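Reminder: ligand-aware prediction takes two inputs, not one.
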Amino acid sequence: MAAPKKSTLKAPKPLVAGNWKMNGTKASLGEVKKLASAFVKSKAKCEVMICPPATLLAPMKALKAKGVALGGQDCHAASSGAHTGDVSATMLKDAGASAVILGHSERRADHLETDKQVKAKVAAAHGAGLLAIMCVGESLKQRKSGDTLKVVKAQLRGSLMDGCTAKNTVIAYEPVWAIGSGLTPTVAQVEEVHTALRKALVRRFGDEGAKMRILYGGSVKPANAAELMAVPNVNGALVGGASLTAKDFGGIVKAYT
Ligand code: PEP
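Here is what comes back for the chain with phosphoenolpyruvate:
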């Protein structure tokens, strides 16, 4: 029998991204400097990113010299125009971002964002040269009714266009019920969803889908990071609350030392 073909694909470099949500003012810059120094000292084998409110992107630009990337938390699908209060992908890029979180469950819930709108935002992010971090995740009701895989695969299908690559797109699996709740899925549940997402990505994007990073997000803490990050097909974390302090975020990044 012929030996199985060895994969020549390199494992993607993990990404640990902090979603600051609507938290932080210029007074937080000291904390983020501490975080950057801790990351440099840790020599962690992952990429690190902070996604602060858009108001803090420009003041945080200096972090990039320390190897900490910056991301936005949402963008409009248009690049400019009469959209009061919105921010475009081009503007995020101009302010120092190299990425943007899109389709976060809080945007889907608070602003009724649909997959179609998220897809348009992903296209806008790519157009501006930003990495799109596209979020999917089931509600507790959907998990309890056994619909988790159906839900996340539909979100994946509907929120991405053909031609996405590992360089311009990252997926974040964030069970809605795990966000900010202190609850996390079991390792087996995380593995089941990440495996299903990987298969769907490979089916649609081929080798690019095999290399695309799939982050886990939802109550990641220093105490559970190593266990969650060791799950097959988990290529990093999207961290909310625990990304606000250098101590906790540094404790999570340590999973990659
Ligand atoms: C998030 O909102 O992206 C998130 C993962 O939040 P937390 O880590 O606080 O659960």
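Residues 19, 174, 179-180, 217-220, 238-242 surround phosphoenolpyruvate (CB under 6 Å). Residues 72 and 100 are 4 Å apart (CA to CA). We will return to this case in the review session.
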